[in-house]
Amino acid sequence: MAAIRAAATDGRKTFLLSAATGTGKGTVLAALLALAERKGSRPVLVSHTEELVADLLDRCKGAGASPGLVKASAAGWGSPSVVASRQTLVNRLDDLRAYAPRLVLYDEAHLALDAQLVLRERVPGATWIGFTATPFRSAGRGQTEGLGDLYEACVYEYSLRQAIDAGDLCDVKGRRVVLDVDLSGCDIDDPDDLSARLNVDAVNEAVAADYLANHAGVPALYFCADVAHARGLAAAMGPRAAVVSGDDPLRAEKIAAHRAGELDVLCNRDLLAFGYDDPRIAVVGMAAPTASLNRYMQVLGRGTRKGKPSCIIVDYVGSTETLEIVNYADLSRAEKKALAARKREEEREARARVETVGGKVEGSRAYEVFILGDAAARRLGAHWYEWQRAFVLAGRRGERKGAAVVHRDGADWVGIGMYRDQPPTRTPWVKGEARSLNDAHDQFELLHRGTLDDCASAGAEYLRRLDVPASTLPAAWKQAPATDRQLGALRSFGVKKPGLSRGEAVLLLDAAIAIRKARQWQRDGGGV
Q: Is the model's pTM score more than 0.70?
Protein backbone atom coordinates (compact mmCIF):
# COMPACT_ATOMS: atom_id res chain seq x y z
CA MET A 1 0.00 0.00 0.00
CA ALA A 2 2.89 2.35 0.73
CA ALA A 3 4.29 1.72 -2.76
CA ILE A 4 0.91 2.52 -4.32
CA ARG A 5 0.58 5.76 -2.35
CA ALA A 6 4.12 6.77 -3.32
CA ALA A 7 3.44 6.06 -7.02
CA ALA A 8 0.23 8.10 -6.90
CA THR A 9 2.03 10.96 -5.14
CA ASP A 10 4.62 10.93 -7.93
CA GLY A 11 1.81 11.40 -10.43
CA ARG A 12 2.04 7.96 -12.05
CA LYS A 13 -1.13 6.91 -13.88
CA THR A 14 -0.09 3.40 -14.89
CA PHE A 15 2.10 1.10 -12.81
CA LEU A 16 2.62 -2.54 -11.85
CA LEU A 17 2.80 -4.41 -8.57
CA SER A 18 4.34 -7.88 -8.58
CA ALA A 19 3.83 -10.51 -5.88
CA ALA A 20 4.50 -14.22 -6.16
CA THR A 21 1.50 -16.47 -6.54
CA GLY A 22 0.02 -17.33 -3.17
CA THR A 23 1.24 -14.25 -1.28
CA GLY A 24 -2.10 -12.46 -0.99
CA LYS A 25 -2.55 -10.58 -4.26
CA GLY A 26 -6.31 -11.17 -4.23
CA THR A 27 -6.60 -9.81 -0.69
CA VAL A 28 -4.74 -6.63 -1.69
CA LEU A 29 -6.94 -6.19 -4.76
CA ALA A 30 -10.07 -6.49 -2.62
CA ALA A 31 -8.76 -4.02 -0.04
CA LEU A 32 -7.87 -1.49 -2.76
CA LEU A 33 -11.27 -1.77 -4.39
CA ALA A 34 -13.03 -1.28 -1.05
CA LEU A 35 -10.88 1.78 -0.29
CA ALA A 36 -11.46 3.30 -3.73
CA GLU A 37 -15.18 2.62 -3.48
CA ARG A 38 -15.36 4.56 -0.21
CA LYS A 39 -13.59 7.49 -1.91
CA GLY A 40 -16.12 7.49 -4.76
CA SER A 41 -13.61 6.48 -7.44
CA ARG A 42 -16.01 4.01 -9.10
CA PRO A 43 -13.26 1.36 -9.35
CA VAL A 44 -13.37 -1.53 -11.81
CA LEU A 45 -11.57 -4.79 -11.02
CA VAL A 46 -10.74 -6.88 -14.10
CA SER A 47 -9.70 -10.53 -14.13
CA HIS A 48 -9.67 -13.37 -16.67
CA THR A 49 -11.51 -16.57 -15.85
CA GLU A 50 -14.91 -17.29 -14.42
CA GLU A 51 -13.36 -18.83 -11.32
CA LEU A 52 -11.11 -15.81 -10.69
CA VAL A 53 -13.95 -13.33 -11.09
CA ALA A 54 -16.12 -15.27 -8.63
CA ASP A 55 -13.28 -15.50 -6.11
CA LEU A 56 -12.45 -11.79 -6.32
CA LEU A 57 -16.12 -10.82 -6.03
CA ASP A 58 -16.36 -12.73 -2.75
CA ARG A 59 -13.09 -11.22 -1.48
CA CYS A 60 -14.29 -7.69 -2.25
CA LYS A 61 -17.54 -8.26 -0.39
CA GLY A 62 -15.55 -9.64 2.52
CA ALA A 63 -13.47 -6.44 2.53
CA GLY A 64 -16.64 -4.38 3.00
CA ALA A 65 -17.22 -3.31 -0.62
CA SER A 66 -20.50 -3.57 -2.55
CA PRO A 67 -19.33 -4.48 -6.06
CA GLY A 68 -21.63 -5.23 -8.97
CA LEU A 69 -20.94 -8.21 -11.21
CA VAL A 70 -20.80 -7.62 -14.94
CA LYS A 71 -21.10 -10.97 -16.64
CA ALA A 72 -23.47 -12.44 -19.25
CA SER A 73 -26.94 -11.28 -18.19
CA ALA A 74 -25.62 -9.64 -15.00
CA ALA A 75 -25.15 -5.90 -15.42
CA GLY A 76 -23.96 -4.35 -12.17
CA TRP A 77 -23.17 -0.94 -13.63
CA GLY A 78 -25.34 0.75 -11.03
CA SER A 79 -23.05 -0.33 -8.19
CA PRO A 80 -20.33 1.84 -6.60
CA SER A 81 -17.71 -0.60 -7.95
CA VAL A 82 -17.59 -3.34 -10.59
CA VAL A 83 -15.93 -6.75 -10.92
CA ALA A 84 -15.82 -8.24 -14.42
CA SER A 85 -13.84 -10.45 -16.74
CA ARG A 86 -11.62 -9.05 -19.43
CA GLN A 87 -13.65 -10.83 -22.12
CA THR A 88 -16.91 -9.32 -20.88
CA LEU A 89 -15.57 -5.76 -20.82
CA VAL A 90 -14.09 -6.03 -24.30
CA ASN A 91 -17.61 -6.84 -25.49
CA ARG A 92 -19.10 -3.93 -23.48
CA LEU A 93 -16.76 -1.06 -24.25
CA ASP A 94 -19.53 1.54 -24.44
CA ASP A 95 -20.84 0.53 -21.02
CA LEU A 96 -17.33 0.78 -19.58
CA ARG A 97 -16.86 4.28 -21.00
CA ALA A 98 -20.23 5.38 -19.63
CA TYR A 99 -19.35 4.05 -16.17
CA ALA A 100 -16.26 6.37 -16.24
CA PRO A 101 -14.13 4.69 -13.57
CA ARG A 102 -11.31 6.70 -12.05
CA LEU A 103 -9.41 3.54 -11.06
CA VAL A 104 -8.95 0.24 -12.90
CA LEU A 105 -7.35 -2.70 -11.07
CA TYR A 106 -6.16 -5.29 -13.58
CA ASP A 107 -5.40 -8.80 -12.34
CA GLU A 108 -2.94 -11.05 -14.24
CA ALA A 109 -1.56 -8.01 -16.06
CA HIS A 110 0.94 -10.09 -18.04
CA LEU A 111 -1.95 -11.54 -20.09
CA ALA A 112 -3.88 -10.14 -23.07
CA LEU A 113 -1.83 -6.98 -23.62
CA ASP A 114 -3.79 -6.02 -26.74
CA ALA A 115 -7.07 -6.26 -24.82
CA GLN A 116 -5.65 -4.01 -22.10
CA LEU A 117 -4.84 -1.36 -24.71
CA VAL A 118 -8.39 -1.54 -26.08
CA LEU A 119 -9.90 -1.17 -22.61
CA ARG A 120 -7.58 1.65 -21.64
CA GLU A 121 -8.60 3.68 -24.68
CA ARG A 122 -12.15 3.77 -23.29
CA VAL A 123 -11.07 5.18 -19.90
CA PRO A 124 -8.11 7.46 -20.77
CA GLY A 125 -8.29 9.46 -17.55
CA ALA A 126 -8.32 6.52 -15.13
CA THR A 127 -5.40 5.37 -13.02
CA TRP A 128 -4.50 1.86 -14.15
CA ILE A 129 -2.80 -0.52 -11.70
CA GLY A 130 -1.68 -3.94 -12.93
CA PHE A 131 -1.03 -6.93 -10.67
CA THR A 132 1.02 -9.96 -11.69
CA ALA A 133 3.20 -12.69 -10.25
CA THR A 134 5.44 -12.55 -13.34
CA PRO A 135 6.34 -8.96 -14.26
CA PHE A 136 7.81 -9.85 -17.63
CA ARG A 137 6.43 -11.00 -20.92
CA SER A 138 8.11 -14.20 -22.10
CA ALA A 139 9.21 -14.55 -25.70
CA GLY A 140 11.35 -17.58 -25.04
CA ARG A 141 13.60 -17.60 -21.96
CA GLY A 142 11.82 -14.79 -20.17
CA GLN A 143 12.56 -11.85 -22.43
CA THR A 144 10.58 -8.74 -21.52
CA GLU A 145 8.12 -7.52 -24.13
CA GLY A 146 5.02 -5.35 -24.12
CA LEU A 147 4.52 -4.58 -20.44
CA GLY A 148 6.90 -1.63 -20.67
CA ASP A 149 4.60 -0.11 -23.29
CA LEU A 150 1.59 -0.44 -20.97
CA TYR A 151 3.02 0.45 -17.57
CA GLU A 152 5.41 3.20 -16.54
CA ALA A 153 7.12 1.20 -13.82
CA CYS A 154 6.92 -1.77 -11.49
CA VAL A 155 6.71 -0.05 -8.11
CA TYR A 156 6.71 -3.13 -5.87
CA GLU A 157 8.06 -6.67 -6.18
CA TYR A 158 7.85 -9.65 -3.84
CA SER A 159 9.49 -12.56 -5.61
CA LEU A 160 9.10 -16.31 -5.33
CA ARG A 161 12.54 -16.62 -3.73
CA GLN A 162 11.77 -13.91 -1.18
CA ALA A 163 8.43 -15.47 -0.29
CA ILE A 164 9.94 -18.93 0.21
CA ASP A 165 12.76 -17.56 2.36
CA ALA A 166 10.24 -15.58 4.44
CA GLY A 167 8.04 -18.65 4.96
CA ASP A 168 5.07 -17.16 3.11
CA LEU A 169 5.22 -19.94 0.52
CA CYS A 170 6.14 -23.57 0.88
CA ASP A 171 9.48 -24.94 -0.28
CA VAL A 172 9.69 -26.05 -3.91
CA LYS A 173 11.58 -29.04 -5.27
CA GLY A 174 11.97 -30.41 -8.77
CA ARG A 175 12.29 -33.74 -10.53
CA ARG A 176 13.18 -34.41 -14.12
CA VAL A 177 11.92 -37.55 -15.87
CA VAL A 178 13.41 -38.46 -19.25
CA LEU A 179 10.76 -39.80 -21.63
CA ASP A 180 11.32 -41.75 -24.82
CA VAL A 181 9.79 -39.09 -27.07
CA ASP A 182 11.20 -37.34 -30.13
CA LEU A 183 10.59 -33.58 -30.14
CA SER A 184 13.17 -32.73 -32.81
CA GLY A 185 11.81 -30.13 -35.20
CA CYS A 186 8.72 -29.65 -33.06
CA ASP A 187 6.97 -26.28 -32.92
CA ILE A 188 6.26 -26.02 -29.21
CA ASP A 189 3.97 -23.05 -29.84
CA ASP A 190 1.74 -25.32 -31.94
CA PRO A 191 -0.51 -27.40 -29.64
CA ASP A 192 -1.45 -29.73 -32.49
CA ASP A 193 2.19 -30.54 -33.26
CA LEU A 194 2.99 -31.09 -29.59
CA SER A 195 -0.09 -33.22 -29.00
CA ALA A 196 0.66 -35.43 -31.99
CA ARG A 197 4.01 -36.35 -30.43
CA LEU A 198 3.04 -36.50 -26.76
CA ASN A 199 -0.50 -37.85 -26.81
CA VAL A 200 0.45 -41.44 -27.56
CA ASP A 201 -0.24 -44.42 -25.34
CA ALA A 202 3.41 -45.21 -24.50
CA VAL A 203 4.20 -41.64 -23.41
CA ASN A 204 0.98 -41.18 -21.44
CA GLU A 205 1.49 -44.52 -19.71
CA ALA A 206 5.08 -43.58 -18.78
CA VAL A 207 3.94 -40.28 -17.23
CA ALA A 208 1.10 -42.03 -15.41
CA ALA A 209 3.43 -44.76 -14.15
CA ASP A 210 5.82 -42.15 -12.78
CA TYR A 211 3.06 -40.35 -10.87
CA LEU A 212 1.64 -43.60 -9.49
CA ALA A 213 5.10 -44.87 -8.48
CA ASN A 214 6.33 -41.66 -6.83
CA HIS A 215 3.31 -39.55 -5.86
CA ALA A 216 0.21 -41.77 -5.81
CA GLY A 217 -2.59 -40.15 -3.82
CA VAL A 218 -0.89 -36.73 -3.67
CA PRO A 219 -3.13 -33.87 -4.95
CA ALA A 220 -1.71 -32.92 -8.34
CA LEU A 221 -2.25 -30.79 -11.43
CA TYR A 222 -0.83 -31.94 -14.77
CA PHE A 223 -0.43 -29.51 -17.68
CA CYS A 224 -0.68 -30.88 -21.20
CA ALA A 225 -0.26 -29.86 -24.85
CA ASP A 226 -3.99 -29.57 -25.52
CA VAL A 227 -7.32 -30.92 -24.28
CA ALA A 228 -6.96 -34.14 -26.30
CA HIS A 229 -3.58 -34.77 -24.64
CA ALA A 230 -5.14 -34.07 -21.24
CA ARG A 231 -7.86 -36.63 -21.96
CA GLY A 232 -5.29 -39.24 -22.98
CA LEU A 233 -3.18 -38.68 -19.87
CA ALA A 234 -6.18 -38.72 -17.53
CA ALA A 235 -7.30 -42.04 -19.05
CA ALA A 236 -3.83 -43.53 -18.51
CA MET A 237 -3.79 -42.39 -14.87
CA GLY A 238 -7.00 -44.21 -14.05
CA PRO A 239 -10.26 -43.47 -12.23
CA ARG A 240 -8.79 -40.98 -9.74
CA ALA A 241 -7.78 -38.59 -12.52
CA ALA A 242 -9.97 -36.34 -14.65
CA VAL A 243 -9.60 -33.81 -17.45
CA VAL A 244 -11.01 -30.27 -17.19
CA SER A 245 -11.33 -27.67 -19.94
CA GLY A 246 -13.04 -24.35 -20.57
CA ASP A 247 -15.96 -25.89 -22.43
CA ASP A 248 -16.44 -28.80 -20.02
CA PRO A 249 -19.96 -28.54 -18.51
CA LEU A 250 -18.82 -30.69 -15.57
CA ARG A 251 -15.64 -28.77 -14.78
CA ALA A 252 -17.04 -27.20 -11.58
CA GLU A 253 -18.07 -30.65 -10.30
CA LYS A 254 -14.68 -32.16 -11.15
CA ILE A 255 -12.77 -29.33 -9.47
CA ALA A 256 -14.98 -29.68 -6.39
CA ALA A 257 -14.32 -33.44 -6.33
CA HIS A 258 -10.59 -32.79 -6.56
CA ARG A 259 -10.71 -30.32 -3.68
CA ALA A 260 -12.69 -32.85 -1.64
CA GLY A 261 -10.09 -35.57 -2.21
CA GLU A 262 -12.34 -37.70 -4.40
CA LEU A 263 -9.94 -37.18 -7.32
CA ASP A 264 -6.13 -37.05 -7.10
CA VAL A 265 -5.16 -35.51 -10.44
CA LEU A 266 -6.67 -32.87 -12.73
CA CYS A 267 -5.24 -32.82 -16.26
CA ASN A 268 -5.65 -29.61 -18.27
CA ARG A 269 -3.93 -27.34 -20.73
CA ASP A 270 -4.09 -23.80 -19.37
CA LEU A 271 -7.44 -23.63 -17.59
CA LEU A 272 -5.85 -23.95 -14.14
CA ALA A 273 -2.55 -22.21 -14.93
CA PHE A 274 -3.55 -18.72 -13.79
CA GLY A 275 -5.20 -17.86 -10.50
CA TYR A 276 -6.35 -21.34 -9.46
CA ASP A 277 -5.97 -21.61 -5.70
CA ASP A 278 -5.94 -24.92 -3.84
CA PRO A 279 -3.38 -25.15 -0.99
CA ARG A 280 -3.53 -28.97 -1.13
CA ILE A 281 -1.72 -29.11 -4.50
CA ALA A 282 1.67 -30.72 -3.81
CA VAL A 283 2.66 -32.01 -7.26
CA VAL A 284 2.68 -30.02 -10.51
CA GLY A 285 3.42 -32.06 -13.62
CA MET A 286 4.73 -30.45 -16.82
CA ALA A 287 3.62 -33.09 -19.30
CA ALA A 288 4.25 -30.70 -22.22
CA PRO A 289 7.08 -28.19 -22.72
CA THR A 290 6.79 -24.42 -22.82
CA ALA A 291 9.12 -21.68 -24.04
CA SER A 292 7.52 -19.19 -21.66
CA LEU A 293 9.18 -18.61 -18.31
CA ASN A 294 6.08 -16.58 -17.50
CA ARG A 295 3.75 -19.54 -17.99
CA TYR A 296 6.14 -21.94 -16.24
CA MET A 297 6.25 -19.82 -13.11
CA GLN A 298 2.48 -19.31 -13.14
CA VAL A 299 1.99 -23.06 -13.37
CA LEU A 300 4.45 -23.65 -10.53
CA GLY A 301 2.50 -21.13 -8.46
CA ARG A 302 -0.45 -23.51 -8.33
CA GLY A 303 1.50 -25.57 -5.80
CA THR A 304 3.31 -22.98 -3.68
CA ARG A 305 0.60 -22.24 -1.11
CA LYS A 306 1.53 -22.93 2.50
CA GLY A 307 0.10 -25.84 4.45
CA LYS A 308 2.47 -28.61 3.31
CA PRO A 309 6.22 -29.22 3.62
CA SER A 310 6.93 -28.66 -0.08
CA CYS A 311 5.64 -28.79 -3.63
CA ILE A 312 7.31 -30.89 -6.31
CA ILE A 313 7.33 -29.81 -9.94
CA VAL A 314 8.03 -32.68 -12.35
CA ASP A 315 9.54 -31.93 -15.77
CA TYR A 316 8.70 -34.73 -18.20
CA VAL A 317 9.90 -33.08 -21.40
CA GLY A 318 12.57 -30.67 -20.18
CA SER A 319 15.49 -32.77 -21.37
CA THR A 320 15.70 -31.75 -25.02
CA GLU A 321 18.85 -29.94 -26.10
CA THR A 322 17.38 -28.81 -29.45
CA LEU A 323 14.44 -26.63 -28.33
CA GLU A 324 14.42 -23.32 -26.47
CA ILE A 325 12.27 -24.43 -23.57
CA VAL A 326 12.00 -23.57 -19.91
CA ASN A 327 12.59 -26.18 -17.22
CA TYR A 328 13.02 -26.27 -13.47
CA ALA A 329 16.67 -25.26 -13.50
CA ASP A 330 15.67 -21.90 -15.00
CA LEU A 331 13.68 -20.87 -11.93
CA SER A 332 16.78 -19.87 -10.02
CA ARG A 333 17.33 -17.25 -12.72
CA ALA A 334 13.76 -16.03 -12.86
CA GLU A 335 14.30 -12.99 -10.69
CA LYS A 336 14.31 -9.77 -12.60
CA LYS A 337 17.89 -8.88 -11.63
CA ALA A 338 19.16 -12.19 -13.05
CA LEU A 339 17.57 -11.83 -16.49
CA ALA A 340 20.45 -9.67 -17.74
CA ALA A 341 22.90 -12.50 -17.00
CA ARG A 342 20.89 -15.10 -18.91
CA LYS A 343 23.09 -15.12 -22.01
CA ARG A 344 26.28 -15.68 -19.99
CA GLU A 345 24.62 -18.51 -18.08
CA GLU A 346 23.51 -20.22 -21.29
CA GLU A 347 27.03 -20.00 -22.68
CA ARG A 348 28.44 -21.54 -19.50
CA GLU A 349 25.92 -24.39 -19.65
CA ALA A 350 26.67 -24.98 -23.33
CA ARG A 351 30.39 -25.37 -22.58
CA ALA A 352 29.64 -27.86 -19.81
CA ARG A 353 27.58 -30.17 -22.02
CA VAL A 354 29.56 -33.18 -23.13
CA GLU A 355 29.24 -35.82 -25.82
CA THR A 356 29.59 -39.44 -24.85
CA VAL A 357 30.90 -42.24 -27.07
CA GLY A 358 28.48 -42.85 -29.92
CA GLY A 359 27.61 -39.20 -30.29
CA LYS A 360 24.61 -39.22 -27.95
CA VAL A 361 24.30 -35.97 -26.08
CA GLU A 362 24.00 -36.34 -22.33
CA GLY A 363 23.17 -33.41 -20.08
CA SER A 364 26.36 -33.59 -18.06
CA ARG A 365 26.09 -30.09 -16.65
CA ALA A 366 25.33 -28.16 -13.51
CA TYR A 367 21.68 -29.02 -12.88
CA GLU A 368 20.16 -27.27 -9.89
CA VAL A 369 17.51 -29.87 -9.24
CA PHE A 370 16.83 -28.69 -5.74
CA ILE A 371 17.85 -25.03 -5.92
CA LEU A 372 14.57 -23.84 -4.39
CA GLY A 373 13.99 -26.70 -2.04
CA ASP A 374 17.17 -28.06 -0.48
CA ALA A 375 18.51 -25.82 2.27
CA ALA A 376 21.53 -28.07 2.81
CA ALA A 377 22.59 -27.80 -0.85
CA ARG A 378 22.16 -24.03 -0.71
CA ARG A 379 24.43 -23.84 2.33
CA LEU A 380 27.05 -25.82 0.44
CA GLY A 381 26.82 -23.51 -2.54
CA ALA A 382 27.10 -26.68 -4.62
CA HIS A 383 25.51 -27.82 -7.87
CA TRP A 384 24.02 -31.19 -8.58
CA TYR A 385 25.66 -32.54 -11.71
CA GLU A 386 23.68 -34.74 -14.05
CA TRP A 387 25.69 -37.64 -15.40
CA GLN A 388 24.18 -40.43 -17.50
CA ARG A 389 20.77 -40.20 -15.82
CA ALA A 390 22.19 -40.08 -12.34
CA PHE A 391 22.88 -37.04 -10.16
CA VAL A 392 26.17 -36.27 -8.41
CA LEU A 393 26.89 -33.64 -5.78
CA ALA A 394 30.70 -33.45 -5.80
CA GLY A 395 32.72 -31.33 -3.39
CA ARG A 396 36.25 -30.80 -2.22
CA ARG A 397 38.25 -28.93 0.42
CA GLY A 398 41.98 -29.14 -0.15
CA GLU A 399 42.87 -32.82 -0.44
CA ARG A 400 39.60 -33.94 1.04
CA LYS A 401 37.00 -34.98 -1.52
CA GLY A 402 33.52 -36.40 -1.27
CA ALA A 403 30.58 -37.16 -3.48
CA ALA A 404 26.93 -38.07 -3.14
CA VAL A 405 25.42 -40.12 -5.97
CA VAL A 406 21.68 -40.49 -6.54
CA HIS A 407 20.47 -42.87 -9.23
CA ARG A 408 17.71 -45.28 -10.14
CA ASP A 409 17.70 -48.84 -8.83
CA GLY A 410 14.56 -50.45 -10.15
CA ALA A 411 11.53 -48.57 -8.86
CA ASP A 412 13.52 -46.71 -6.20
CA TRP A 413 16.05 -43.94 -6.14
CA VAL A 414 19.20 -44.82 -4.23
CA GLY A 415 21.56 -42.38 -2.56
CA ILE A 416 25.19 -43.40 -2.05
CA GLY A 417 27.81 -41.38 -0.19
CA MET A 418 31.50 -41.73 -0.95
CA TYR A 419 34.74 -40.55 0.67
CA ARG A 420 37.87 -40.41 -1.48
CA ASP A 421 41.57 -39.73 -0.89
CA GLN A 422 41.15 -39.50 2.87
CA PRO A 423 39.19 -41.74 5.22
CA PRO A 424 36.40 -40.20 7.36
CA THR A 425 37.48 -38.48 10.53
CA ARG A 426 34.17 -38.79 12.30
CA THR A 427 31.50 -41.42 12.83
CA PRO A 428 29.21 -41.71 9.78
CA TRP A 429 25.87 -40.01 10.50
CA VAL A 430 23.85 -42.62 8.60
CA LYS A 431 23.61 -46.05 10.14
CA GLY A 432 25.07 -48.76 7.95
CA GLU A 433 28.31 -50.46 7.10
CA ALA A 434 31.00 -48.44 5.30
CA ARG A 435 32.49 -50.63 2.57
CA SER A 436 35.90 -50.55 0.98
CA LEU A 437 36.65 -50.54 -2.75
CA ASN A 438 40.19 -51.05 -4.06
CA ASP A 439 41.92 -49.45 -1.08
CA ALA A 440 41.30 -48.01 2.36
CA HIS A 441 40.70 -44.56 0.99
CA ASP A 442 37.52 -45.38 -0.95
CA GLN A 443 34.63 -45.81 1.45
CA PHE A 444 30.94 -45.83 0.69
CA GLU A 445 27.72 -45.93 2.59
CA LEU A 446 24.10 -46.28 1.61
CA LEU A 447 22.40 -42.99 2.46
CA HIS A 448 18.81 -43.59 1.51
CA ARG A 449 16.51 -45.67 -0.64
CA GLY A 450 13.17 -44.26 -1.75
CA THR A 451 12.19 -40.96 -3.35
CA LEU A 452 14.52 -38.75 -5.36
CA ASP A 453 13.91 -35.86 -2.98
CA ASP A 454 14.82 -37.83 0.13
CA CYS A 455 17.94 -39.30 -1.47
CA ALA A 456 19.10 -35.90 -2.68
CA SER A 457 18.49 -34.26 0.68
CA ALA A 458 20.42 -37.04 2.39
CA GLY A 459 23.29 -36.58 -0.06
CA ALA A 460 23.51 -32.83 0.50
CA GLU A 461 23.45 -33.31 4.26
CA TYR A 462 26.13 -36.00 3.93
CA LEU A 463 28.61 -33.59 2.36
CA ARG A 464 27.71 -30.80 4.74
CA ARG A 465 28.42 -33.00 7.73
CA LEU A 466 31.74 -34.00 6.20
CA ASP A 467 32.60 -30.31 5.85
CA VAL A 468 33.25 -30.88 2.14
CA PRO A 469 31.77 -27.90 0.25
CA ALA A 470 31.86 -27.08 -3.43
CA SER A 471 35.26 -26.43 -4.96
CA THR A 472 37.25 -23.65 -3.28
CA LEU A 473 39.89 -23.53 -6.02
CA PRO A 474 40.96 -20.00 -7.03
CA ALA A 475 38.57 -18.44 -9.54
CA ALA A 476 41.29 -17.53 -12.05
CA TRP A 477 42.63 -21.09 -12.02
CA LYS A 478 39.15 -22.57 -12.44
CA GLN A 479 38.41 -20.37 -15.46
CA ALA A 480 41.62 -21.25 -17.30
CA PRO A 481 41.37 -23.83 -20.13
CA ALA A 482 41.39 -27.47 -19.11
CA THR A 483 44.81 -29.11 -19.27
CA ASP A 484 45.73 -31.89 -21.71
CA ARG A 485 45.95 -34.26 -18.76
CA GLN A 486 42.42 -33.38 -17.66
CA LEU A 487 41.03 -33.75 -21.18
CA GLY A 488 42.81 -37.11 -21.54
CA ALA A 489 41.30 -38.31 -18.28
CA LEU A 490 37.85 -37.20 -19.41
CA ARG A 491 38.29 -39.03 -22.72
CA SER A 492 38.82 -42.22 -20.73
CA PHE A 493 35.26 -41.71 -19.49
CA GLY A 494 33.98 -41.15 -23.01
CA VAL A 495 33.99 -37.36 -22.84
CA LYS A 496 35.29 -35.66 -25.98
CA LYS A 497 34.14 -32.10 -25.51
CA PRO A 498 36.67 -29.30 -26.20
CA GLY A 499 36.46 -25.87 -24.64
CA LEU A 500 36.06 -26.93 -21.00
CA SER A 501 37.60 -24.83 -18.24
CA ARG A 502 39.80 -26.37 -15.55
CA GLY A 503 37.07 -25.92 -12.97
CA GLU A 504 34.50 -27.64 -15.17
CA ALA A 505 36.91 -30.48 -15.90
CA VAL A 506 37.62 -30.99 -12.18
CA LEU A 507 33.93 -31.26 -11.29
CA LEU A 508 33.10 -33.45 -14.29
CA LEU A 509 35.93 -35.80 -13.37
CA ASP A 510 34.70 -35.91 -9.77
CA ALA A 511 31.23 -36.78 -11.05
CA ALA A 512 32.49 -39.42 -13.48
CA ILE A 513 34.72 -41.10 -10.89
CA ALA A 514 31.95 -41.08 -8.32
CA ILE A 515 29.49 -42.74 -10.70
CA ARG A 516 32.01 -45.36 -11.82
CA LYS A 517 33.05 -46.30 -8.29
CA ALA A 518 29.51 -46.27 -6.94
CA ARG A 519 28.37 -48.63 -9.68
CA GLN A 520 31.31 -50.92 -9.03
CA TRP A 521 30.49 -50.90 -5.33
CA GLN A 522 26.92 -51.78 -6.16
CA ARG A 523 28.00 -54.63 -8.44
CA ASP A 524 30.21 -55.93 -5.65
CA GLY A 525 27.18 -56.19 -3.37
CA GLY A 526 27.57 -52.92 -1.54
CA GLY A 527 24.30 -53.10 0.33
CA VAL A 528 22.05 -51.73 -2.43
A: no
